[in-house]
Amino acid sequence: MCGASVLSDRWLLTAAHCVQDTTVYKLSQAHKWEAFLGLQVQNQTNEWTVKRGVKQIIAHRYYNRYTEDSDIALMELNTRVSLTQHIRPICLPSSTYFFPSGQEAWITGWGTTLQGGAATAILQKAEVKIINSRLCNILLNYRVTGNMLCAGVLSGGVDTCKGDSGGPLSVANSRGRFFLAGVTSWGKGCARIYAPGVYTRVTKYRSWIKQKTGV
What we know:
With 215 residues, this protein is mainly β. It contains two helices and eleven strands, in the order βββββββαββββα. Helices cover 7% and strands 29% of the residues. The strands form two sheets. It has a six-stranded antiparallel barrel with strand order 6-7-8-11-10-9. A five-stranded antiparallel sheet has the order 1-2-5-4-3, with helices on one face.
């Protein structure tokens, strides 16, 4: 299970590591996936939940499974969805936009709420803060590249975890519009002290998204 962000009535954005083949599953094959939009409770659809197949998957060509650099991928739905108050595309920042350290951000997903715990059935959200990249790089043994963004709570206790991969790190502007700052990528455990979560920095891939999707 992975999360994703709605970009348009046809395109989703997720993490490249979600769509890599394993010894058991051929996750790079589009027909293996189903996308549920407007879902809040796992396995409980309602009148505003939409299910779609996936037509194609485009993982970034420079994704590195060892460093997790360029951990970003696109999914094209097999048929368009109607955008509603329950299914809305997130805004994309310009390639030059900078999310400052200390800015409040939101994470969402159905992942585990404790390291080693079970996934949650109800969609969860939590508030975190953007963490200074230099500090984060030191805390995470110099594994953070310029294509990554760190967010979390340095005192621990709040973080994305297993099952949240590919989901959004979003920031609201002064008018309440949400912009996609990051894609949930990796971390050192979950919610540990001085171990922020790491996200793919969306601004670094804005032109790539535009080229592939037109969005």
